[in-house]
Amino acid sequence: MNNLKYKRILLKVSGEALMAEKEFGIDSETVRNLALQIKKIKELGVEIAIVVGGGNIFRGMQNSVKLGMDQASADYIGMVATIMNALVLQGIFKKADIPVRVMSALPINQVSEPYIRLRALRHLEKGRVVIFAGGTGNPFFTTDTAAALRASEINADAMLMAKNKVNGVYDKDPRKHNDAIKFDYISYDDMIIKDLKVVDTAAVSLCKNNNIPIIVFDFADTESIEKILKGEKEGTLVGGLLNNDH
After folding, report:
1. 12 domain-assigned
2. Would residue 3 count as lying in a domain?
3. Edge-to-edge strands of the sheet including 129-133?
4. How far apart are CA 12 and CA 217, in angstroms?
5. How far apart (Å, rounded) are the C-alpha atoms in residues 4 and 168?
């Protein structure tokens, strides 16, 4: 534990990261690799909370336009999608002998606990991985914002943003532009001013207000989380203190 830079983390896993090469749904190898990573870093003594997105199943804003729905209704469907993903992760984690609890901002007591901050903190202190589902419980907020909110509530040392084949923050989408420039470090304010879409602006503001550094990294690298915890250069550091490795 003394060698670790961060001892309590909030890991945000996008729904797209769970798809890997698939067009929708969940890639089984990807979630098994996630379980192996979580088990490894948990054995280092790290307290881990996870917020999972739902974009691999349903994207609120995009689908509301396509289907002619109002955005609030579509966002609620997206929240249910995050609960589905959380339950899949819980099942995989249990199979890997990782103690885990799902806490949902939307009441669904048959399959999850309601989100209660003090109970979540107790789970973390007891060495359980806590998966926060249901976003913030309100429409018009992204799961990035939900992740920043939960990170603030549990006093996380850092928020790790797992992306699908994007190993940090760039000045433009590297999947579309070969000349995209990667930032090893960028301040909260520059993220907002430059309007970089990798992390939701509201999430960046919330992390800034609570002094929580954000690390954006490529989910495909199975060693990435451990490297980040040990303070090694990985992805892009947003805010926080710049050390010699970044």
Report:
1. yes
2. no
3. 113-114, 100-104, 129-133, 47-52, 8-13, 158-163, 214-218, 236-238, 185-186
4. 11
5. 21
Question: What b-and-e string marks burial along 13-26, b requiring 16 or more CB atoms within 10 Å of the CB?
Answer: bbbbbbbbeeeeeb
Total count of domains within the chain:
1
Give the tens place of pLDDT for each residue, 107-159.
999 999 999 999 999 999 999 999 999 999 999 999 999 999 999 999 999 99
Amino acid at 27: D
The encoded tokens of residue 94 equal: 């249990």
Residue 155 covered by a domain: yes
Tokens representing residue 11 in the block = 């890991």
Note the pLDDT tens digit of each residue in 161-188. 998 778 899 998 888 899 999 999 999 9
Is 108 part of a structural domain of the chain? yes
User: 86 — phi, psi (to 5°)?
Assistant: -60, -40
What CA–CA distance (Å, rounded) separates 151 from 59? 23
Q: What is the pLDDT of residues 95-107, one digit of tens each?
A: 999 999 999 999 9
Q: Which of 171, 164, 165 is nearest to 194 (CA)?
A: 171
Phi/psi region, residue 216 (left: phi>0; alpha: psi -120 to 50; beta: rest), is beta
Average pLDDT over residues 47-57: 95
Q: In CATH, what number is assigned to the domain containing residue 106?
A: 3.40.1160.10
Is 0.90 topped by the overall pTM?
yes
- Residues 61/62/66/69 CA torsion (nearest 10 deg): -10
Structural domain for 221, as ranges: 8-166+213-227
